[in-house]
Design goal:
Layout (H helix, E strand, L loop, with lengths): L2 E5 L3 H13 L4 E5 L14 E4 L10 E4 L6 H8 L8 E4 L6 H8 L5 E5 L9 E7 L5 H12 L2 E5 L6 H9 L1 H18 L4 H21 L5 H8 L5 H9 L5 H19 L3
Parallel strand pairs: 1-2, 1-4, 2-3, 4-5, 5-6, 7-8
Antiparallel strand pairs: 6-7
Helix pairs in contact: 5-10, 6-7
């Protein structure tokens, strides 16, 4: 692959770009970002910054990483740089394959993907779906790009993407909130704040590493392995696993994110 056009270099766009650079995914990167390039990328000779979409060179793959609310205008400004064989790869929540076919033409190859921010360190997960104009070669190229950020799952059912967005796309924020809440609870229990923050952070990191080290062990089993009958962990889990506990809250949270993703498809 010779060139990638990245439209938007915010948190997610920058995370993907970081992964591509580590993998030498392309010879040239054209990045459209009105706010300027993030500092880690400014000295790279293979990255060409553009404040706007005017006079962009054609690209093999155009990765759209802007907010769904501005996608319509962004696609309109991008059209002169899109060849008939340019692969459109969108990572925006709620933006459907049909919407991009309408914007770029019914024969344009389009892939809709939902990565997450751990892609910046190669530990992300992405789910992707393509339209009927995506050839095997284009799918392979997109798969390689997305794998620079971690694991990739493909689906033929686009209707799953709103749930994917709610679970894995937004999921890192839920984990970080758990880290925050655990640290805050530790402070209320009497721990000094710096110590509580360190304990909560490393506990989440360590538990994640343990899950990664035992991929065939279910989360339920890992949880039970920490839980002694009548012990301190069981006392805490009796609260977290109550009818109005964590599972109920998580279901409500994922449902809310899923509905918002569906709403964004109408914008």
């Amino acid at each position: 692959m010779t060139s990638i056009l990245l439209l938007g270099c915010g948190k997610m766009g920058a995370a993907l770009l970081q992964g591509w650079l580590k993998q030498n995914a392309a010879m040239r990167y054209d990045v459209v970002e009105p706010q300027g390039l993030p500092s880690p990328f400014q000295s790279r000779p293979d990255i060409h910054w553009h404040a706007a979409s005017a006079k962009l060179p054609p690209a093999d793959i155009a990765v759209l990483a802007v907010k769904p609310q501005v996608m319509e205008e962004a696609c309109r400004s991008l059209k002169p740089a899109i060849r008939p064989d340019t692969l459109i790869l969108s990572i925006a929540a709620g933006q459907t394959l049909a919407a991009f076919s309408r914007r770029f033409g019914m024969a344009q190859p389009v892939i809709r993907a939902m990565p997450n921010t751990p892609a910046a360190i190669g530990q992300g997960v992405t789910v992707a779906v393509g339209n009927s104009h995506v050839t095997a070669a284009r799918k392979k190229a997109a798969d390689a790009l997305l794998k620079a950020g971690g694991t990739v799952e493909w689906t033929d059912d686009e209707t799953l993407m709103d749930a994917v967005t709610a679970v894995s796309g937004s999921g890192p924020a839920y984990v970080f909130l758990l880290m925050e809440a655990l640290a805050a609870a530790g402070v209320k229990a009497g721990l000094p704040e710096p110590l509580s923050l360190r304990l909560a952070r490393q506990t989440v990191i360590g538990a994640s590493a343990l899950a990664a080290a035992e991929p065939d062990t279910s989360a339920a089993t890992l949880r039970k392995n920490v839980t002694s009958p009548g012990g301190t962990t069981e006392a805490a889990l009796n609260i977290l696993m109550a009818n109005d506990g964590l599972a109920s809250l998580m279901t409500k949270a994922v449902n809310a994110a899923q509905e918002r993703s569906r709403d964004l498809s109408q914008s």
